[in-house]
Each structure stands twice: as C-alpha cells, then as structure tokens.
Specification:
Structural class: alpha/beta
Strand order of the largest sheet: 3-2-1-4-5-6-11
Distance between the termini: 49 Å
Bound molecules: nicotinamide-adenine-dinucleotide, 2'deoxy-thymidine-5'-diphospho-alpha-D-glucose
Order of helices and strands: EHEHEHEHHEHEEHEEEHEEHEHHHH
Number of strands: 13
Helix content: 40-55%
C-alpha cells in the first residue's frame, strides 16, 4: 500500500514512519510535512536511506500541493498527524491553529474524496473532551463524552474531528479517528513538559511548573500510540472514533520529581510559576473500545518508558541543544518572562 503520513517530521509522525517501515515491509511511506519550527529532518535521517520512503515538503492547507502529491502517489491510506500542537502557542496566536488544523484537514479530506482514498485517518487528541475534575478519579473520557474544548488548540482539533465525521456521514468517506492522551518519547520538541524538564534539569536550570503542579495527564509511550494508529487505520471500523490511553495518570509535579530523581538533581530546581490560562485539570482515557475491538493494549510501563526517554535525551544532547540555541530561545524568553 501507499501510505501518506502528514506531519511525519514531527515527534509522533517520525516515530510512526519508523513503526511502519519496521512492521510493514510491503508498504511505501510518503511523508508530507511543511517543516515548521516543530519539525526535525534529523529525525528522518535513517528513513531517508530507505527506498520505501519518500519525503515531500508541503503544506496540508495548500490545495495544489496536496493535489499534485495525491495525483502522483495515489495513496491507499492518508494518516494526518500534521498540526500545530502546543497549547501555550495557541493561547498566544490562535490563527495558525485554525489554518493548519481545520483548513488543512479539510483540504486533505477533499483530496481523499477526489482520489478515492480507502482510508483517511485523523490523529486527534483527548483534549477535545475538555477536562475532568481532580476529585472524581472514577470518571474517564469515553468516545461518548461530549466535546467541550478549553484552548484554541483543542477547539481547532475538535473542528477537524467534526469535519472528518461529517465527510464520513455526508459523502461516505471511509474515515477513522483516534483520540490519544499525552505522549512522551524520543524526538519530542523541548517545549512540551517532559523534554522541557529533562533538558532544563540537565542544564541545572529552573524547571517551570504551572500553578501548583496538581494537574493530571495520562501518559503514553509514543510507540504504543503508533501501534494504536496503525491498528485503527487498517482494521478500525470506518466512521468510528477510538480513544487511546494506558491508565497512567500522574500529576505534573510527580512527573517532574521522577525526572529529578532519575537525573539525581535537587528539588530546588522546581519553580512554581503562573498557571496556564484555562488550564485543563485532568485527562484520563477509557481505552475499552480499542482494546475490545482491536486487541490494542499499551506495552510500555511508565517506569520503563520514562527511563528510556531520559536516556535518549541524555544521549542526544546535540539534537535538543541545537533547538534550544536557535529561535526557540526567543520563544522561551517571551513565554516565561512574566510567569
Ligand atoms: P509536533 O508538533 O511534534 O509535529 C507536528 C508536525 O506537523 C511537524 O513536523 C510540522 O512541521 C508539521 N506541520 C505543521 N503544520 C503543517 C502544515 N500546515 N502542513 C504540513 N505539515 C505541518 O506534533 P506531535 O506532538 O507529533 O503531534 C502529532 C499529532 O498528534 C497532532 O495532530 C497532535 O494533535 C496529535 N496528538 C499529539 C499528542 C502529544 O502528546 N504530542 C497526543 C495526542 C494527539
Ligand atoms: O493530551 C494530549 C495533548 O497533550 C496533545 O494533544 C498536545 O498536542 C500536547 O501538547 C499535550 O498537551 P498538554 O498541554 O497536556 O502538554 P504540555 O506538555 O504542554 O503540558 C503538560 C502539562 O504540564 C500541562 O498540565 C501543563 C504543564 N506544564 C507544561 C509546560 C510546557 C508545566 O507545568 N510547565 C511547562 O513549562
């Protein structure tokens, strides 16, 4: 099969490219990526040496570029990872989130209709459900939980999900959606909690925890997410949504403390800073549907995944140091100056 992976130079997309190349030797993988600040061509170095892989630089919201690619490659499956993904950036500047996450998805959906693509898979997020209270550990997001977004990021992802489902119902397009919890692992851009905290701890710099650090996220190792997307896009029922998560809830403070312990750094590095506006309290996924229908279960316990991830950031200091010494430094100074 020919599989177009959009956003394949980003964190999860690049891990997914390797997942496909390793698990499906019969498939060709074509990555379409605009190469925004969040992309890393270095992450695709090994893939570029594989003759089953092709990289194309392009914008998912550019109708002509998408049309050219689809006409050339005649994809069987299109899996859409491409997005603006950082909540804090969406609070600072929502426009690009609407353009890429909503209009880009619509452009891909139209191209899929035109070219008779056999499956369009939308990689979505648990953030479309909003948040859960901290004092109700019995509550989880199911696929029936109403959409109730908090940030411009999550609103744009919910908009994309609704468009994809509308194309399924109105045009009969074979669409599927996964809504996953927080990922961690190699090649995550160091603006997100875990790589930010690892890189700052390694440099003995203060670690900015929003509010009191009580917010809860449900962490999943990136390879487990890749396995879930692969299963749903091949075997999931068209028109359906599948939640993906591994019942691994932790407060932000406990994640930060785990990182400090693993790196043998002092707790005095923790700095409590002004909270994120509209900060979602707790995410927690009920993965019963994907487990029952497709037999998916997470394979990597958090203790193992976080150790592997920390080791990766220690061993690949050059990768994130180059990022931190470039444009990202100006972003960090702007975002955290008044916190
Ligand atoms: P990322 O920010 O690391 O990478 C996004 C990639 O998309 C980058 O390579 C970027 O260049 C590319 N891109 C951005 N705009 C584009 C455009 N207009 N056209 C083409 N390419 C474009 O993102 P990530 O964390 O790997 O997330 C990937 C997907 O998974 C996103 O759709 C996100 O909403 C979803 N998701 C992420 C998480 C998480 O914890 N990171 C959890 C659940 C769902
Ligand atoms: O749940 C899935 C979502 O997870 C994805 O859809 C998003 O693309 C991804 O960015 C992530 O969103 P979060 O907002 O949960 O991730 P982030 O790493 O930005 O923050 C995780 C938690 O840590 C959150 O409660 C905010 C907090 N935080 C974050 C940063 C960057 C801090 O306390 N300090 C920080 O400096």
């Amino acid at each position: 099969m020919n599989i177009v992976v959009t956003g394949g130079a980003g964190f999860i997309g690049s891990n997914f490219v390797y997942y496909l190349l390793a698990h499906h030797p019969e498939d060709r993988v074509i990555c379409l990526d605009k190469l925004t600040y969040a992309a890393s061509m270095e992450a695709l170095d090994d893939a570029m040496r594989d003759e089953r892989f092709r990289f194309v630089r392009g914008d998912i919201a550019d109708t002509d570029a998408v049309e050219r690619l689809f006409a050339e490659e005649k994809p069987d499956i299109v899996v859409n990872f491409a997005a603006e993904t950082h909540v804090d950036r969406s609070i600072d500047d929502p426009g690009v989130f609407v353009r890429t996450n909503i209009m880009g998805t619509q452009t891909l959906l139209d191209a899929c209709r035109k070219h008779g693509v056999r499956r369009f898979h939308q990689v979505s997020t648990d953030e479309v459900y909003g948040d859960l209270p901290l004092d109700r550990p019995d509550l989880f997001f199911t696929e029936e939980t109403p959409l109730h977004t908090s940030s411009p990021y999550s609103a744009s992802k919910a908009g994309a999900d609704l468009l994809a489902l509308a194309y399924a119902r109105t045009f009969g397009l074979p669409v599927s959606i996964t809504r996953c919890s927080n990922n961690y692992g190699p090649y995550q851009f160091p603006e997100k909690l875990i790589p930010l905290m690892i890189s700052r701890a390694l440099a003995d710099e203060s670690m900015p925890v929003y509010g009191k650090g009580e917010n809860v996220r449900d962490w999943l190792y990136v390879e487990d997410h890749c396995a879930a997307v692969d299963a749903v896009m091949r075997m999931g029922r068209p028109g359906e949504v599948y939640n993906v998560g591994g019942h691994n809830e932790r407060t932000n403070l406990s994640v930060v403390r785990t990182i400090l312990q693993e790196l043998r750094k002092p707790e005095s590095l923790i700095a409590f800073v002004t909270d994120r506006p509209g900060h979602d309290r707790r995410y927690a996924i009920d993965p019963a549907k994907i487990s029952a229908e497709l037999g998916w279960l997470p394979a990597t316990p958090f203790e193992e995944g976080i150790r592997r991830t920390i080791r990766w950031y220690v061993d690949n200091r050059g990768w994130w140091s180059r990022i931190l010494s470039g444009d990202y430094r100006a972003y960090y100074e702007k975002m955290y100056a008044h916190r």
